[in-house]
Amino acid sequence: MAEAHFDHLSGFDAIEVYESKRLGDSAKFVITRRWSDARVDLLMHATSRLPDVAASRHSDGKRVAARLTHELGHSDELLVYIPNLYRNTRRFTTAEIQRSNFLPLYPLRDFLPIMRGELSYLRLPDQLVDGTSLMVIEGRPLYEDQGFDQLLLHFSPESPLAVRTTYLRRGRELRRVLIDPAYIVDREGWLVPMRRLVIGRDGVTTELRLRNLLMNPYLPDGFFSEHNLRVQRFPH
């Protein structure tokens, strides 16, 4: 059940257009994802100005972009390009992204895939939340540091996906992701949340709305290259 939850969130090839809102600011960005066996390539690029980084838009129109390569049992390679802020692409570890509040309107950490076989799961006692008994499943990473050492998935009887996912490190909450069952739609057999609320450890909520979705697009190898982060040949 827990692994199926993460499958539905990111287990298919897609181009997804999102709008985020946080503390009165908003932004738009695109997530492009491609799977191949036990590997996933993911690319995020902004389609609107980044309000919390003044130099985020270069005079030639380039914007924030990031690329992730994730393989089962291996360290991730995460490259971020911010025109005028970094001269070249900058490398980050998954742990750094998970533990930080880097670019909060473009929450990369909420799109890092969790594959089958990456976590061990344990059923915990049900928990009563707002008068509803929720099933609780604990997940713990089996491989290298993912930035969290525990997550808790809460499932309600009305929802096929976890209504609450809490990421923790050393007993301290990093963030919570809330999904309202009313915003879950079926797209070609995949259950897709059209709206998510992400509550950071600072208590601030970021709203993520999926505005458009293209499933199983053709994505050439060069699309996910480091070179493309700079030249930015992206879909819009």
What's the topology here?
Elements: H1 2-10, E1 14-22, E2 25-36, E3 39-46, E4 65-71, E5 77-81, E6 90-92, H2 94-99, E7 119-129, E8 132-141, E9 150-155, E10 164-169, E11 172-178, E12 184-187, E13 190-193, E14 195-200, E15 205-215, H3 226-231
Antiparallel strand pairs: 1-2, 1-15, 2-3, 3-4, 4-5, 5-6, 7-8, 8-9, 9-10, 10-11, 11-14, 12-13, 14-15
- Principal-axis shape equals globular
CATH topology (level 3) name: outer membrane lipoprotein receptor (LolB), chain A
Q: Over the alpha carbons, how many angstroms does the gyration radius reach?
A: 17 Å
Number of helices: 3
Mean pLDDT: 86
**Domain unit count:** 1
**Which structural class do you get from the secondary structure elements?**
mainly beta
Q: β content, as a range?
A: over 45%
Distance N terminus to C terminus? 34 Å
Structural description of this entry:
This protein has 236 residues and is mainly beta. The protein has a single domain, classed as Lipoprotein localisation LolA/LolB/LppX (outer membrane lipoprotein receptor (LolB), chain A, Clam), CATH 2.50.20. The protein contains 3 helices and 15 strands. It has helices at 2-10, 94-99, 226-231, and strands at 14-22, 25-36, 39-46, 65-71, 77-81, 90-92, 119-129, 132-141, 150-155, 164-169, 172-178, 184-187, 190-193, 195-200, 205-215. The strands form 2 sheets. Strands 6-5-4-3-2-1-15-14-11-10-9-8-7 form a 13-stranded antiparallel sheet. A hairpin with an 8-residue loop joins strand 8 and strand 9 (150-155). The radius of gyration is 17 Å and the shape is globular. The relative contact order is 0.19.
